[in-house]
What we know:
By secondary structure, the chain is an alpha/beta fold. The protein has helices at about 15-30, 35-50, 60-70, 90-95, 115-120, 140-150, 200-210, 240-250, 250-270, 300-305, 335-340, 355-370, and strands at about 55-60, 80-85, 100-105, 125-130, 155-160, 165, 170, 180, 195-200, 215, 225, 275, 290-295, 315, 340-345.
Amino acid sequence: MKKNKIDFNFVSPKLDRRDINFLLNNILKQEIPNEGKYTREFEKKIAKLLKIKYVVATTSGTIAIYLALKSLNIKNGDEIIVPNITFAATVNAVSLAGAKPILVDINKNDLLIDTEKLKRKINKKTKAIITVHVSGRGSNILDLKRVAKKYKIKLIEDAAEAFISKKQKKYLGTIGDLGCFSFSPPKIITTGQGGVVVTNNLSLYKKLLQLKNQGRVGSSNGGQDRYESIGYNFKYTNLQSALGVSQLKSIQYRKKKLTDNYLFYKRNLIQNKKIKLFEFDTKNGEVPLWTDLYCSKRDELHKYLLKNGVETRLFWHPINYCKPYKQSFDNLEVSKMFNEKLLWLPSTLDLNKNDLKKICLLVNNFTKKYLQ
Ligand SMILES: Cc1ncc(COP(=O)(O)O)c(C=O)c1O
């Protein structure tokens, strides 16, 4: 392997000739590039795949979360519970809706929101929980559903990283009141940018449609438009949808590839107290979008791999560590323990066995030398 050249990226979107031809032939030659026929087809296909009634396509996963919150009439001063370990988008969507994010610590074993600690944060101002299925790993969703029911608050799933990942025989994102997905480049399918909100609730669905299209009901026809509420423009174009429709054809292949990547790492990496993978329940349909790794010498491992052509991705800092949401680590001890100790291994759809072998060999060499 050559030094200082990246041989293996953390992720690389898989858009093949078939996807591009589909876009060229179906949209650029025939359809207007606005939201339209292919957007409806994309939504329908996702509804069928995830066994959910309603799907609303929008501009990004961030906006999917924002729309989900707005459809629940979240207002200034409302409190929304979120995990302290997530991509900033989850918390920024709460801020965009004018609400206050309440940060809750995570579990040691799965990096997902801690249900017991969460219960202690519920008060009269609490209106919803957003649970995040980090890397495609399902959070304790049925317990969370019970908690939400008991306290009469809503449950939103940030399933941005968990498209077609399953827990307890159901697709993640379809268990709470609303689920939000992202199709940005590192995801299992990508349309450049984009996202969907899903729900089984008809009245939330109707609100979502108005919110994303200037508050209009029915067709958008200028003078004949009926404006029922305040709304915005968060439409999702035919251009994006066509790429999505095309990639959905290979979704099972994509799922298998990501699962195989993780299982290869699991079988071949040396693990001990200083270096450890987080498990996925692949037998029951959890899809490891990205393989996440704890390493006591994380930054050294990252640099060593980079020098040898392997790009890993450093895990996000905990939200409370970031400037706009700065607060102490009180009651956030697990997040503190993992701060700067986690990374994602290359998790692309085009890694082959030889690539994976090379990556494992390098990680194991590092472990033997520095982590015994
Ligand atoms: C956990 C999580 N939530 C939300 C988002 C936001 O999605 P988008 O980038 O499509 O806005 C992402 C995107 O990477 C994510 O990983």
